[in-house]
Specification:
By secondary structure, this protein is an alpha+beta fold. It folds into two domains: 45 residues; 108 residues. It contains five helices and six strands, in the order βββββααβααα. A three-stranded antiparallel sheet has the order 1-2-3. A three-stranded mixed sheet has the order 5-4-6. Helix 1 packs across helix 4 and helix 4 packs antiparallel against helix 5. The longest helix has 18 residues. It is elongated, with a radius of gyration of 18 Å. The relative contact order is 0.12. The structure holds zinc ion. Zinc ion (ZN) binds next to loops.
Length: 169
């Protein structure tokens, strides 16, 4: 990204956040040429062309609707509100844009989704994991279920997910 002060194109991303349901990415940048800082706002699909690398190596444009669709399937008939699903999608996008600029593996997205689902709803987590990880036998699945039940929640997760789910219909 071209620096607004010195016009050089040498910068390092310091921080990324998504807003407006993940449509806008705000990036704090540090110009390595003049040492000043500036902020850019990028819209997915416009300036931001993010590709997802699938397991077979095929690259497809990132599509938030697919992420939300996967979460909805996992949360079907569970006490997880539509709003909460959007929040999880926001968090996943924040994880993505913190680390990746142009390409992200579908595996990374899957891991991020599992991490959040685990703290929100264990059943949804297991459902998602069973599709995503393609357990080869029942033993693997049982191991995962046991782990999900016994493991303490991830202490590093943001407060958002430790709040009670009281906003459900
Ligand atoms: Zn500069």
């Amino acid at each position: 990204m071209r620096c607004p002060y010195c016009k050089e194109d040498k910068d390092k991303v310091i921080d990324s956040r998504s807003s407006e349901g993940g449509r806008i990415i705000r990036r704090r940048r540090h110009c390595l040429a003049c040492d000043r800082r500036f902020t850019t706002y990028e819209k997915i699909g416009e300036n931001v062309k993010l590709n997802v690398i699938k397991k077979d190596g095929v690259r497809v444009p990132y599509d938030r609707a697919k992420v939300v669709g996967g979460l909805q399937k996992a949360c079907y008939k569970r006490a997880v509100s539509a709003e909460k699903i959007q929040e999880i999608a926001d968090r996943i996008e924040e994880d993505i844009f913190k680390q990746f600029d142009k390409e992200v593996s579908s595996q990374f997205i899957g891991h991020s989704a599992m991490r959040y689902l685990k703290s929100v709803d264990k059943v949804a987590y297991i459902r998602f994991a069973s599709v995503y990880r393609e357990f080869t036998d029942a033993g693997d699945l049982i191991d995962e279920v046991r782990k999900a039940i016994l493991e303490p929640d991830d202490p590093e997760l943001p407060d958002l997910f430790s709040k009670p789910l009281d906003n459900n219909q």
